[in-house]
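Journal club prep — side note

Before the paper discussion, L.F. wants everyone to see what a predicted structure for a comparable chain looks like in token form. Sequence:
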Amino acid sequence: MKENLTIQDIATRAGVSKTTVSRYLNGKYGNMSLKTKAKIKAIIEEVGYRPSKQAQYLKSKKSYLLGLLVADIENLYSAYLIKSVQDALEGTDYQILIMNTNNSKKAEQKALQKLLDQNIDGILLQPVSTNIEDFKLLQDAAIPTILIDRSLVNSHWTTVQSNNYQVTKELANHIIQLGYQRIIHVSEPIENISPRVERYDGMRVEAMTQNIPLDLVELTQKGYSLEAYLAAHPLKEKTAFFAANGNALYEVVATLKRLGLEIPKDCGVSGFDDWFWAELVPPGITTIHQNPHQIGLRAAELLVAEIQEGIPVERIEIPSELHIRHSL
């Protein structure tokens, strides 16, 4: 039967001191006898006692709250990240507060302030920009921070992300080796968002090295679409599209379908992000498969380690791989 007992009540029933029960609850057995441990354990199980987490947190001066800021919660990648972070924290005392910044610097600053007001112990940050000066609030607070998916220039925080540049360069070479004479790189606005910059640089460098024309089409919220671009620049040479993330890939596939263009007969298609539907779209889209689950797990584990013992600053790239299908 569960009773509303205190540590003192448990101590009285066990015939030991309150300090001894407290040491048992904190796993500090020291010279505690097996008989005493067994007696305390039996009483706790009998009455269904659970120590007050709030009291423990107040005593340790920790909140055991972590913040996770994602740039776009509607992006499927964010769903994978969130789940992986929750998986990593399973079995720990830490809880996660999730904030969406909607790729807005203003929203990001507000979210950071709200998290700091909660006295959080650490932050997992998918930053909106690459400028470290935009994060003075976080620097001044000296909160343990791990950057996730996106990097910052001259940052003193550990970053966990995909190997965007190298794997995109490999895909560019694959496209060119298949005989394509023109590549159209389709991306959400690149601005200073590091994965978009790195993927464009990987595609651009390889295309330039092999003397292949590369066009950049940025999908903006101001109405400029891929369809408008193709109306002004019709396909003539053997052309392959590269979509820089899952959202861009969806736009490419949808646009080609509206225009009645067949993949790969009329043009080739490839993309970054191997979302579940990529292999279902005929004839199966060649993609770069990154590992958001491993990125989230590693970042969360590093943040806990940073809070508890400190870690050296490093840039960790989780390998991605090409999934070759029949769209090129």
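L.F.'s comment for the group: The first strand starts at residue 65 and ends at 70. Keep this in mind when we get to the figures.
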